[in-house]
Structure formats: structure tokens, C-alpha cells
Amino acid sequence: MKDTGTLISGIYYKIKLLVENNALLTKEIERFEHQNSELKNELEISNKKYTQIKEELDVMRITKTISLDDDKVNTKTIINELVREIDKSLNLLNK
Hints:
By secondary structure, this protein is mainly alpha-helical. The chain has one domain. The radius of gyration is 31 Å and the shape is rod-shaped.
């Protein structure tokens, strides 16, 4: 049988390794949480840019449609659709 001191020394060594691994994993978790936070911010910025560009595109389409006098039915449809969207937004804000 091994000496008690040798067994205790082995246990101490393994505990030390576990503590070191725990510290490394904790730092890695913090790094991943920071990275996740940065990616969420980038996604939010990208979504805002997407929404802004989409709105600009809609305005350009409407402008183009309105400027074409031949397509009054399509223009009226687009305007009615926009009015419905505004009404929905107002209803959501009022809730």
C-alpha cells in the first residue's frame, strides 16, 4: 500500500489541477459572454440599418410609382397598405 502522505499529495495535486482548470474555464466563459454581448450589439445595429434601408426602398418605390401617372391603381393600393401599417402601429402604441 502506498504511504498516506503520497495519497494526500496526489489528491492535493489533482485538486490544484481542478482549481486551475476552473479558473481557465471561468475566464473563457467571461470571454464568450463578452463576445456574445458584442455580437448582439452588432446584430441590433444591423437590424436597425436593415429597417432603415427597407423604409428608404419603400419610399423610393412609392415615389417612383407616384411619378408614373399610368399606374394610379397600384399607387392607391400602396398608399392604402401604408395607411393600414400606420394604423396597426398606432394601435400597438395605444395598448
